[in-house]
From TrEMBL:
Coiled coil: none
GO molecular function: DNA binding
Domain of life: Bacteria
Keyword terms: DNA-binding
Organism: Fervidicola ferrireducens
Protein name: Transposase
């Protein structure tokens, strides 16, 4: 989808007032429809009733019902109570309830909340009408303008002040949209007394020409330090090349500046894949606890991820890749950093982030990771008593409370898993399927145990930075134990 934002300048104050009136009625219609949907009424039952109550045509009413239904479904998907939805914004509503806000500050908040609650209008595009019947873009000798249906065969007109977007006139883009004959949706919003329009048209992507058959570029995005790590594989999953794209601009600056740089870095990633003629593998976007993979967890990681706009950057990579006909594969991100650090970082002497990108690329090819023989030897000899000793060592030596708490939790989880598998000498767990995580009994979480058994003894007081120390462990199967 392509969305273009523009402000509207009305030919007359009368036209503006008529548009504000229909925005108010449409917003009320949406709220009314939402409450009736909660009561179990259907679209067909509501349609004629809403037309009579709010004096809106059938298209506007259909769009209001659709919006109300989308809010209801979204609320249910998030597991929230649909009966507690507040149109206009809960945060603003809660501020208005506070007793200490009064005078001009209260009036300002109240005005903003009323605009959000009542200043909305949405009109879907219609292919049979070659665009949009209720809110149509028109072109004359003075430029582009928006014709808004405000009643039975009655229209209000507003000039579209679109500005510029990525070196191209937004007005030129709107002219192209208005003449292409494709349906486009228009949404009007009232902000600080001014009406803004959002034009959205569905983008037609070319057929996929670059696929994983020739290999993959795996992408690992890191909030700290802020960079993109990438690894290129051939069609068999062998490491071909790797690198990093620094992104210092994403940790500061206003939202517009960060948005610009997100697009810029996404272009760099896609250009890299296009030059190498390789598909792109990224982490699946539904990950919940990205803070647990890497150096940070908890509140600090949440703050970093919020400003870092991880999801937004991946979405831009997906869109740009589709425009270039490049296949994008989303993989399960679980344990990519752990596997990369333990297996591939010491093997190829690359950074943990590049190694994680390599694991992502291999998962994109459908390859499964096996635990190396050296590490298997450690797991075979490991027992719960040994982990209990490690736990006591961490309690004595680690001063950082947050790090100590995390390490003790990891050790406790490892002890439970070892006990569930049985700790008799010679009993070897099954090889790990690196692309699917199962229950403890299946042996699919042994990378977590391996991390505790190998990394924690080597670096109990800090996060392991130098992965070269793992190279000897990888080949010998021997790791230093705490005294």
């Amino acid at each position: 989808m392509i969305t273009i934002q523009a402000s509207l300048s009305f030919d007359s104050n009368e036209d503006k007032q008529e548009v504000l009136d229909i925005m108010r009625r449409w917003s009320s219609c949406t709220r009314f429809a939402y409450n009736r949907l909660l009561e179990g009424k259907s679209r067909n039952e509501l349609k004629r009733e809403l037309q009579e109550i709010f004096s809106l045509n059938s298209r506007y009413v259909d769009d209001a019902i659709m919006k109300a239904k989308s809010v209801l479904e979204s609320c249910k998907e998030r597991g929230e109570n649909p009966g507690k939805v507040i149109f206009g914004g809960r945060s603003l509503f809660e501020k208005l309830k506070k007793q200490h806000i009064n005078g001009n500050a209260y009036k300002k908040l109240q005005h903003e909340w009323q605009e959000r609650r009542k200043g909305n209008l949405y009109s879907r595009g219609d292919k049979s009408k070659k665009g949009n019947l209720n809110t149509r873009i028109e072109i004359d000798e003075y430029g582009t303008r928006l014709r808004i249906n405000v009643g039975e065969r009655k229209y209000a007109y507003a000039r579209i002040q679109a500005g510029w977007k990525k070196g191209k006139s937004r007005e030129e883009l709107l002219e192209a949209i208005s003449t292409c004959g494709q349906p486009y949706s228009v949404e009007l919003k009232l902000k600080n007394g001014k009406v803004y329009a959002y034009f959205t048209i569905e983008e037609n992507f070319p057929e996929v020409a670059i696929t994983k058959e020739s290999g993959i570029v795996g992408i690992d995005i890191n909030a700290y330090p802020d960079h993109i790590a990438w690894s290129e594989t051939d069609e068999n999953g062998n490491l071909a090349s790797y690198g990093r794209v620094p992104m210092p601009e994403l940790t500061s600056g206003n939202s517009n500046k960060r948005e610009y740089y997100r697009w810029r870095y996404a272009h760099e990633v896609v250009r890299l894949a296009e030059e190498k003629k390789k598909a792109i593998a990224i982490e699946r976007l539904d990950i919940r606890e990205k803070g647990k993979r890497g150096d940070f967890s908890g509140r600090k990681s949440r703050r970093i991820r919020h400003s870092f706009s991880y999801r937004s950057l991946l979405e831009k990579i997906k869109v740009l890749a589709k425009r270039k006909g490049i296949q994008v594969i989303e993989v399960n991100p679980a344990y990519t950093s752990v596997i990369g650090m333990l297996k591939y970082a010491p093997q190829y002497m690359i950074s943990k982030d590049v190694a994680a990108a390599y694991v992502i690329a291999r998962r994109g090819l459908g390859l499964k990771e096996q635990i190396p023989e050296g590490y298997m030897a450690i797991l075979k000899e490991l027992d719960a008593d040994e982990l209990e000793e490690l736990k006591e060592h961490v309690k004595r030596t680690v001063k950082n409370k947050q790090l100590k708490k995390r390490q003790l939790k990891e050790i406790d989880e490892a002890i439970k898993l070892i006990q569930s598998l049985g700790s008799e000498p010679g009993r070897g767990p099954r090889p790990l399927d690196g692309t699917s995580l199962g229950t403890c009994g299946s042996g699919h979480n042994l990378w977590r145990v391996l991390k505790v058994a190998v990394v924690t003894p080597l670096s109990p007081e800090r996060v392991l930075r130098d992965v070269s120390v793992l190279k000897g462990v990888l080949h010998s199967g021997q790791v230093g134990r705490p005294g």
